């Protein structure tokens, strides 16, 4: 599906409830499947990636019923999964394949994981390597560096893994395998990655010990069914926050946005660039902090984004690049090598596509440099089947001199199925 975005005639005004958090929705279904008894999940994101997690868990013998944004999961306990009759296809979901690898490493049966062409290019050794250290039996293409992955349950042992990257997917896979391992499993990272797994495991009754850069748990702990409330996804909210900051005259309120401190780098960037951002109604929502955010158009200034800030906004960098294009002065993004192993190489893709629209931007080895304030021209760009690239290009169309034609916008359904509908409601245009 292709989409043509017309430059806006009006400011963006109104309120939007952001769809459920993708990372939390994945974990809620996965953990509920491993728990004893029934769990309910409210606010579940019906995006393509999260639906891949549901499909895989159903193949593993779990009954999951869907009623709108409420999901009911009849868990069988963490030893209750059954051997799948067919290959488990995760689609485009890196979270599904990496977290599920941790679970399957502890099973007594054999399973095979595959995904789409994008998944086939994404590095899996960062997960399969430590799982092999725990005594899991894993085969795959290029020594389990790439899919398909073949996992046979092993007699797992706990390890202390010093991760070379701050990755919630790596940390989560190892901790999930640790539930099946003898002794204690601990993961230490160079900087703290998002901590949804630690928080949610606690909600399911698992004791997790957390320090500044480490998380550990003892094997053999049972999960108990519970009720989970999924907050709005701050990574999806980022695109509307940027839209409100760069479209003249705009004022947008976003309801129930997740404000997990490991994810709020986009808030820090907006505030440091000078955006008019108000945070209200802060509260806890199912163990996760949430708030209502109001963003208004304002004059912005460029900045340097690097170091410990990067893991807290890695998924928002395509949106931040568009934001930076409308700021006065230079914005430098560094220490973001992780962008190269996302759905696309997001350094090259963001730079190439924004350049096509006239933005003054250049790639570096670990990030990019954006010169503001750029005039955004119309033109033809691609999402490369990457949901966040697709949304970033759509933002450009709101402020461009001429229409922006974005190819393959169906990818946006991965994380924000109602993105264009919400933009339309805020613009008042049909």
Structure, explained:
Helix 11 runs parallel beside helix 12. The protein has 13 helices and 24 strands. By secondary structure, the chain is of the alpha/beta class. It has two domains: 215 residues, Alpha-beta prism (UDP-n-acetylglucosamine1-carboxyvinyl-transferase, Chain), CATH 3.65.10; 195 residues, Alpha-beta prism (UDP-n-acetylglucosamine1-carboxyvinyl-transferase, Chain), CATH 3.65.10.10. The mean pLDDT is 95. The protein is globular, with a radius of gyration of 21 Å. It starts with a strand and ends with a helix. Strands 3, 4, 5, 14 and 15 form a five-stranded mixed sheet that branches. It has a four-stranded mixed sheet with strand order 2-16-18-17. Strand 12 and strand 13 form a beta hairpin.
What attributes does this structure have?
430 residues, alpha/beta, UDP-n-acetylglucosamine1-carboxyvinyl-transferase, Chain, five-stranded mixed beta sheet, 27% strand
Largest pleated sheet: 5 strands, mixed
Low-confidence stretches: none
CATH superfamily descriptor of the largest domain: Enolpyruvate transferase domain
* Proportion of helical residues: 25-40%
What is the CA-atom radius of gyration, in angstroms?
A: 21 Å
Q: Roughly how many Å apart are the termini?
A: 19 Å
SSE-based structural type: alpha/beta
Proportion in β-strands:
25-35%
Summarize the structure.
Helix content is 31%, strand content 27%.
Give the SSE map.
Elements: E1 3-5, E2 13-17, H1 22-34, E3 35-42, H2 48-59, E4 63-67, E5 70-76, E6 88-89, H3 94-104, E7 110-114, H4 125-133, E8 137-140, H5 141-144, E9 146-152, E10 160-162, H6 168-178, E11 184-188, H7 196-203, E12 209-210, E13 214-218, E14 223-224, E15 227-229, H8 234-246, E16 251-258, H9 265-273, E17 276-285, E18 288-296, E19 304-305, H10 317-325, E20 330-333, H11 346-356, E21 360-364, E22 367-371, E23 379-382, H12 387-399, E24 404-407, H13 419-427
Parallel strand pairs: 2-16, 3-14, 3-15, 6-7, 10-11, 19-20, 23-24
Antiparallel strand pairs: 1-24, 3-5, 4-5, 7-9, 8-9, 11-13, 12-13, 16-18, 17-18, 20-22, 21-22
Helix pairs in contact: 1-2, 1-3, 1-7, 3-6, 4-6, 8-10, 8-12, 10-12, 11-12
């Amino acid at each position: 599906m292709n989409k043509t975005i017309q430059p806006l005639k009006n400011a963006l005004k109104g309120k939007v409830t952001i769809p459920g958090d993708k990372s939390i929705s994945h974990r809620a279904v996965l953990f509920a499947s491993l728990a004893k008894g029934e769990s309910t999940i409210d606010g579940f994101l019906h995006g393509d990636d999260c639906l891949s997690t549901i499909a895989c868990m159903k193949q593993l013998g779990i009954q999951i019923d869907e009623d709108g944004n409420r999901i009911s999961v009849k868990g069988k306990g963490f030893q209750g999964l059954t051997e799948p009759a067919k290959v488990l296809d995760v689609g485009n979901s890196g979270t599904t394949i990496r977290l599920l690898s941790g679970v399957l490493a502890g099973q007594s049966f054999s399973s095979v994981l595959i995904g789409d062409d994008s998944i086939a290019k994404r590095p899996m050794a960062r997960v399969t390597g430590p799982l092999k250290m725990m005594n899991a039996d894993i085969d795959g293409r290029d020594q389990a560096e790439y899919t398909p992955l073949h996992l046979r349950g092993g007699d797992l042992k706990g390890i202390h893994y010093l991760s070379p990257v701050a990755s919630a997917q790596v940390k989560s896979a190892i901790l999930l395998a640790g539930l099946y391992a003898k002794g204690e499993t601990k993961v230490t990272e160079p900087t703290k990655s998002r901590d949804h797994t630690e928080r949610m495991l606690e909600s399911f009754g698992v004791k997790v010990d957390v320090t500044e850069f480490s998380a550990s748990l003892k094997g053999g702990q049972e999960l108990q069914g519970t009720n989970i409330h999924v907050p709005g996804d701050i990574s999806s909210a980022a695109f509307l926050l940027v839209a409100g900051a760069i479209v003249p005259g705009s004022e947008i309120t976003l309801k129930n946005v997740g404000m997990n401190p490991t994810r709020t780098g986009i808030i820090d960037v907006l505030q440091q660039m000078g955006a008019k951002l108000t945070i209200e109604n802060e509260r806890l929502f199912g163990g996760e902090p949430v708030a209502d955010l109001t963003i208004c158009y304002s004059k912005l200034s460029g900045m340097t984004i690097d170091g410990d800030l990067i893991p807290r906004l890695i998924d928002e960098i395509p949106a931040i690049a568009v934001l930076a294009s409308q700021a006065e002065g230079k914005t430098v993004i560094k220490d973001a090598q992780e962008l190269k192993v996302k759905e696309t190489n997001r350094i090259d893709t963001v730079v190439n596509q924004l350049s096509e629209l006239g933005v003054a931007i250049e790639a570096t080895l670990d990030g990019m440099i954006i010169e503001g304030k750029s005039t955004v021209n119309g033109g033809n760009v691609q999402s490369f089947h990457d949901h966040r690239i697709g949304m970033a290009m759509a933002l450009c169309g709101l402020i461009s001199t001429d229409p922006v034609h974005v190819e393959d916008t169906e990818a946006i359904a991965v994380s924000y199925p109602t993105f264009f509908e919400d933009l339309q409601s805020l613009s008042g245009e049909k």
